[in-house]
Amino acid sequence: MLTLSGSSSLLPQFNNRRSTLSFALNKRSLVMRALTRDIIDISLDVAADSRKHSFPILINGCTGKMGQAVAEAAVSAGLELVPVSFSSDDKSARTLEIGDIEIRVHGPSEREEVLSSVTEKYPDVVVVDYTVPNAVNANAELYCKFKVPFVMGTTGGDRQLLYKTVQDSNVYSVISPQMGKQVVAFLAAMEIMAKQFPGAFAGYKLEVMESHQATKLDTSGTAKAVIACFQKLGAIFDMNEIKMIRDPEEQINMVGVPKEHLAGHAYHVYNLTSPDDTVFFEFQHNVCGRSIYAEGSIDAAIFLHKKVQSKAEKKIYDMIDVLREGNMR
């Protein structure tokens, strides 16, 4: 009886503890379900965002390191990578793998036929061009012929002719000598300064050094754009005076480029000295690797696709326009 009586007195406590435990378990279950719903919602949002930006993109110049970096960035961004690319004759008739996508490389003689097929299968395709300077104008004429919107990341070529070709064809494009968003922001600041303070560096002597990988054949388009701003500010300089450094030993010993980035870097130095040599300014921007340009190129392609879809009145843009849009990834 004592045992039964004692057990009976413990029953309310046991029941209370069981209720408390049950409440705790139920609460935990509710929390876990809520977390699961949140995770699902986030996943759906990400998928929706990916679909929102998803469109076919053709990267010309995938045989080069820059073109390959842009193709990889396109896949990472959830864009549909068109499985063809243009290149020179000596690099054509081969297949490249970007992620799990096989890219067939075509030579110059096949460009028109291939692009015609691409536009039929992918009517809303956007092209990103990272080929070579001497192909800029011919490629632009081809894109314009087929009314394909394009991002021209390749520097060099006849830039005046490039703009005229695009204007005459009324095709959407982003044309910029620099695709790195942060460097573009610096360029924008330089243009603002040149516009608001013309002559601020009147009489100053300008010296410019630019170092890029040995495979870059032309003078830096970024350097030219910055120099143009300094000239508006009054600095004395001739474009032929740009010091181009392509020798790896000089790049390591004189410029300070890390050895592991000799194959992909962009170092720029602009020195300004007053007429009496008492005042000195130095502007410098150094980039190692290609990710900054690849990501910027994809942002430009997404930007351009939106302009096409919205039937924007303006047709020719640059990276400053992309920056001003303010919705980069």
From TrEMBL:
GO MF term (any one): NADPH binding
Domain Dihydrodipicolinate reductase N-terminal: 56-179
EC number: 1.17.1.8
Catalytic activities: (S)-2,3,4,5-tetrahydrodipicolinate + NAD(+) + H2O = (2S,4S)-4-hydroxy-2,3,4,5-tetrahydrodipicolinate + NADH + H(+); (S)-2,3,4,5-tetrahydrodipicolinate + NADP(+) + H2O = (2S,4S)-4-hydroxy-2,3,4,5-tetrahydrodipicolinate + NADPH + H(+)
Coarse class of the protein's main subcellular location: plastid
Keywords, in A-Z order: Amino-acid biosynthesis, Chloroplast, Diaminopimelate biosynthesis, Lysine biosynthesis, NAD, NADP, Oxidoreductase, Plastid, Transit peptide
GO cellular component, one term: chloroplast stroma
InterPro entries in the cross-refs: DapB_C (IPR022663), DapB_N (IPR000846), DHDPR_bac (IPR023940), Dihydrodipicolinate_Rdtase_pln (IPR011859), NAD(P)-bd_dom_sf (IPR036291)
Segments crossing the lipid bilayer: none
The keyword Oxidoreductase appears for this protein: yes
Superkingdom of origin organism: Eukaryota
Associated pathway: Amino-acid biosynthesis; L-lysine biosynthesis via DAP pathway; (S)-tetrahydrodipicolinate from L-aspartate: step 4/4
Enzyme class: oxidoreductase
Dihydrodipicolinate reductase C-terminal domain residues: 183-323
Record localization: Plastid, Chloroplast
GO BP terms: diaminopimelate biosynthetic process; lysine biosynthetic process via diaminopimelate
Function of the molecule: Catalyzes the conversion of 4-hydroxy-tetrahydrodipicolinate (HTPA) to tetrahydrodipicolinate.
Family named by the database record: Belongs to the DapB family.
Protein name in UniProt: 4-hydroxy-tetrahydrodipicolinate reductase
